[in-house]
Structure formats: C-alpha cells, structure tokens
Fold:
Amino acid sequence: MSRDPLIVGNIVGDIVDYFDASARLRVLYGNREITNGSELRPSQVANQPTVKITGLARSLYTLVMVDLDAPSPSDPSAREYLHWLVTDIPEGGDVCRGTEVVAYESPRPTAGIHRLAFVVFRQTARQEIYAPGWRANFNTRDFAEIYSLGAPAAAAYFNCQREGSCGGRRYR
Structure:
C-alpha cells in the first residue's frame, strides 16, 4: 500500500504518471500552505494563491492547475477542468513573475468533493505556449507531450467542496 499522497489521492494515475519530484512546490492561499489532501472551501481559494517553485537554479517552470472531478466526482465528464496555466516561472520566484496563459479561475464545486491539482513541469527553454480554446477536458499528459515538457517536476493537491457541505473523500 502506497503512502505517497499523490498516489492515494489518485492524482498519479488520473492525470499524471508516476514521477520522481525534482522541485519543491509551495502553494499558499493567504497564509495557509496547502498540504496534499487538505480541505479548503471555495471562500478560502477565491483569490489566486502565492506559488513558489524551488528546483534547478536558473530554470523556468510551467504550472497547471486542474479540477479532476468536474462537474462532479460521480460524473467527471469535464475532467480535467483547467483553472490556471502559467509558464516561464523563474526558479525561486513567485508564479506572478511568470507568463499567465490562462487566468486563475477560483474553484466553485457544486456537488461532491473535488480534487484540485497543481502540476509543475520544468521547461528546457523559454517557449511560446498557447491557451487552449476551452477549460473543460484539458489533458495534462497531452499538454506535457505537445510542449515536450517531460515528466512533472512537482505536484500538490487539495480537496474542495461547496460551502456548508460535509463529508469526507472515500478512496478506492
């Protein structure tokens, strides 16, 4: 039985293949740093988070944020819903120093508990990355392949459900 929270939460498997992390990803909503599997409400994630990536010196990174359970965990027909896409993030710098390709859209789940994942890729060079035509049915694996990004450098996720609902996530 794996103890890796990205495997337990089915982030590895559902949107990315297993990878060895080569960077450290810190995501803060206000002064709260997310940990894998932490629970946040839509009101806590309404504003764009502060994101810092520590990895290979003088590297550039791409950040993808997706909802794996849109529109609902029982029918994730819009998986992966793209909430944010930022490229050319300098190592050690905040994500706001990168190029925002798709603006941050705050998660607003209406049914069930949604997993929201941040996936970071190391770029081999500064490159032009284009916004997809829509946010629903984004595919992180295909995106990484199209832009030759390779395996993820880091990933993290949190759970989010609508305000006032209760219950925990059940894993297979």
